[in-house]
């Protein structure tokens, strides 16, 4: 790629993506592999959060509880798709110096850009609803705080995020990594206690024909549909630019792409392992009780029920589960706010203070959760149902995010020498088309269930 090509493309962005943190993290020059990797590590963790948020938990655990290790291969395939998409998102940001929202806005007119902004905002709010619900339920389970009260308390994390931004972007990354490590450690411990079948796990890693049976396929769609989320692609294309890279030096750009890919893949492998642990936990502890585990509270209480948790149940395990849920919700809260700022500035060139952006997004997300909690008597089951329905927006928005990303990174005109290899483009298009079909099937299924329930 010539320097003139990507500079001409980048100059149309108007503003730098996340200007307050863009190019603020120094990277060593001519350093060894591990030192350089450490400098580039961090953005991948913020992205990985979206692949292990509360929206993934129920589908993975119930998948194990109902079909043992059968759907483990689906978790792995979802992780591979995530790696491909996030690699392209980071590369787009580093090479063009534009985030995905800026790149799309540059190639579309104002009305189309506005429509895509609204759709993306709805997806971010749908994601935020999942975090509100996860946080409120965790507070209820840990401290017996009423669900409505817990929902309102989640608004206070606005101030938490403001505090974190004062510490610098590297500190935010460190806190997110700590929370991820907490989640990972808890589930490794729970799975170790459950003594899963090693042979069953090995067999589950191989795709089997039973996956395509109706009920199994529906749950597989849920696992895949809850994995790749549109906001993560916008986020990664922006925060990959937080590293100080001299774009006049093609070797530095090439190094940034290489180490950002390492960072992303390492973190996403970790997220895939967490999702696999969730499914393994469901298979090892709760197989045969899948119909009784449709809500977070069901899982919490099952871990202290010896009849279900097969002799290892204890209140400590239940508490650890709730702590992991709370950590998951707080993690995704941080990334959701950053993504909201990225798409607002990229699509409609509007800047607002971060505290206002966070407060508005959270209040809008809180409203439907409070209504659901009040109308249905503040029951956790109602909130779990709302969490499932919120995934509809994510499913609808996904192709409008994936398709432009694949097109940009597969264009020689846009990416020059950094254009996707042919095999990457083929896998990406197959993934995009397949995920679009699967997500719309999931939407249809959810709508049918809703109509039947009404």
From TrEMBL:
It is found in: Cell membrane; Membrane. The chain crosses the membrane at residues 69-90, 111-139, 145-164, 176-197, 217-235, 268-288, 308-327, 359-376, 388-410, 422-451. Keywords: Cell membrane, Ion transport, Membrane, Symport, Transmembrane, Transmembrane helix, Transport. It comes from the Bacteria. It is a multi-pass membrane protein. InterPro entries: NRAMP_fam. NCBIfam families: nramp, Nramp_1, PRK00701.1. H(+)-stimulated, divalent metal cation uptake system. Belongs to the NRAMP family. This is Divalent metal cation transporter MntH. It comes from Periweissella fabaria. The lineage of its organism: Bacteria, Bacillati, Bacillota, Bacilli, Lactobacillales.
